[in-house]
Design goal:
The protein is of the alpha+beta class and 169 residues long. The chain has helices at residues 133-138, 146-153, 157-168, and strands at 26-31, 45-51, 57-62, 68-74, 77-82, 88-93, 98-101, 106-111, 117-123, 131-132. The termini are far apart. Oxalate binds at residues 58, 63, 68.
């Protein structure tokens, strides 16, 4: 039988800047039950999000199992979420400002400042899940039928196929 230790309840690393050199210019460092076994059944987790300047983006996504509360540690972020009746709630946040993203709603953050930005968020699940909207639709494997997406987005099927190639690359 394995014994639970203090290490099962801690995580080191939210002080370390994440690599923002990827195409979107953001990085999420997770501190959930996968990194902290002691969170199992406790219904809470955290992330650190780093945003490159200029315009580092945490793209539209949803957390199917969690509400998120975000605090800006450094920088200036444009944030928002879209309700189920397609209403956008958005704000520009500065250091120390807090914003809430309700469970399951599509939301985003983008660095609109001149310098790199950092935020810390708490989520109301030990494993909130993340579903990126564009990646889900254009990066699915096997791919979603291009004619279906073309009709849904009112765009040409060749553009859908190009997007699918980019997301699957």
């Amino acid at each position: 039988a394995s014994m639970v230790t203090a290490e099962d309840f801690m995580f080191k690393g939210l002080n370390i800047a994440g690599d923002t050199s990827k195409m979107l210019g953001s990085n999420v460092t997770q501190a959930n039950v996968m990194q902290i076994p002691g969170l199992n059944t406790l219904g809470i987790s955290m992330v650190r999000i780093d945003y490159a300047a200029p315009l580092g983006l945490n793209p539209p996504h949803t957390h199917p199992r969690a509400t998120e509360i975000l605090v800006v540690i450094e920088g200036t972020l444009s944030v928002g979420f879209i309700t189920t009746d397609n209403r956008l709630f958005s704000k520009t946040l500065e250091k120390g400002d807090v914003f809430v993203f309700p469970k399951g709603l599509v939301h985003f953050q983008q660095n609109v400042g001149r310098y790199n930005a950092v935020a810390i968020a708490a989520l109301s699940s030990q494993l909130p899940g993340t579903q990126q909207v564009a990646m889900s639709l254009f990066g699915a494997s096997p791919p979603v039928d291009a004619s279906l997406l073309a009709k849904a987005f009112k765009i040409d099927a060749s553009l859908v196929q190009r997007l699918q190639r980019e997301f699957l690359a």
